[in-house]
Every structure is written in C-alpha cells, then in structure tokens.
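Appendix B. Worked example

We walk through a single record from start to finish. Start with the input: the chain for Serine aminopeptidase S33 domain-containing protein, Faecalitalea cylindroides ATCC 27803, length 220.
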Amino acid sequence: MLFFKKKQKVIITIHGFGKNVQHEFDPLAKHIDKKKYQIIQFDMYDPYDPHDDNYETWIKKAEEKIHEYKDQEIILLGFSMGGVIASYLASIYHVRSLILVAPAFQYLDLANITNHGIKIVKNLAKKSVSVPSASQTKAFQTIINQYKESIYHIDCPVTIFHGTKDEVIPVESSKNIYSNIPGKKRLIYIEGGKHRMLYDGIMEECIFTLIDDALEDKLI
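Next comes the structure step. The output line below is what the pipeline stores for this chain.
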C-alpha cells in the first residue's frame, strides 16, 4: 500500500519597494495560523546597499523560493511592487492562488516622490537616513514596466485588496487591470485603507481577516 504525504500550504510573501523589505509582513506572519500554513519571508535586495540594484537578481531571488518549495502547495502573496513580481511568478510557475495587496501596476506620483526625496537629501547631513538609492528606484520602475502585464497571463485564482485611501498606489491601478484578468478573480476595496495597511496598526484586523478568507478559498 502506498502512502502519499499531504502537501503543506506555503505562503511565499513578496515585499514591496522600500527599506522595510520582508518586515512589511511581520504583523501578518504573527497572525497566520502556523498549524495550517508555513509563511516565508525574505529580502529581494538590501536597501542599505545602494549598489544592490540589479532587478534581475531581485527576481531571481524570488524564483529561488518557488523552486525551494515546488513540492508544496504555494500561495503567492505580493504587496505593492511585490504584487507585480508575484503576478509574474504566477504566470510562469504553478501556484495554488495569488493574493495581491495594493499591487503597483500603475506608476506612483513621481512628482511627490521627487519632492519627498529632496527633503530626505537635505536631512542627510543632519541625521543618518537610509533609503533605496536612485539606481534601486530605477530598478523598481523597470520591474513595473517590464512585468505589469504578467497579470493577464495567469490561470490561478486571484484576489486583490486595495485601500480606498491609498496615498501611494491609486486604487484605480487595481480597478483598471481587474477586468482583463482571466479566470477566477475578486477585487475587494478596503474602505479607508491606506497603502501600508498590512503594518500600519490601523487596518490590520480588517485586512488580516480577509486574507484568512482568501487563504481558505472563501472569497472566490
């Protein structure tokens, strides 16, 4: 008699662009039921190394996680820039489902970013501030431009969460791509949710409950 070991459900998280990297998912990781899921966090790049700016290397690190857990049931969970990367991975690898939080399919307001960057530079002489470098920002933009249409070429269920008060990625970003996503899908607006609702201490209970439902296939 043959016995087959049941596959474990593994959540591979793909972080966004910024200095928090994998720690964006720390509150969610504490919330997730470890008896049901294994949650994987990792850094695609080092925000404190301005020369770690090869976007292909970032993508490769994410792909390595797919290969590492290929024998398990993989659920991809991408935030912001990570939503675009997770969509790309789901278009070329077999995964159970794709969950996106505030995915960055549409460009940010670059004018606001520039103004914010000028303030940071002026403060560098006064205090130690470490943010992604200009070349890393260019790598981010390349990722969005090159992989944003991958979402149209996936065959797994897709659940998207986007806050109505997102000040970084406009909610229209998710609305515009949603209608052209093939297969099973669901777009849920988080009323009052801002971009960093995964770890802002305000909307976490709401978004985590919905992510639980998405993981259990209750939303589609």
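Two observations about the output. The mean pLDDT is 91. Residues 106 and 170 are 8 Å apart (CA to CA).
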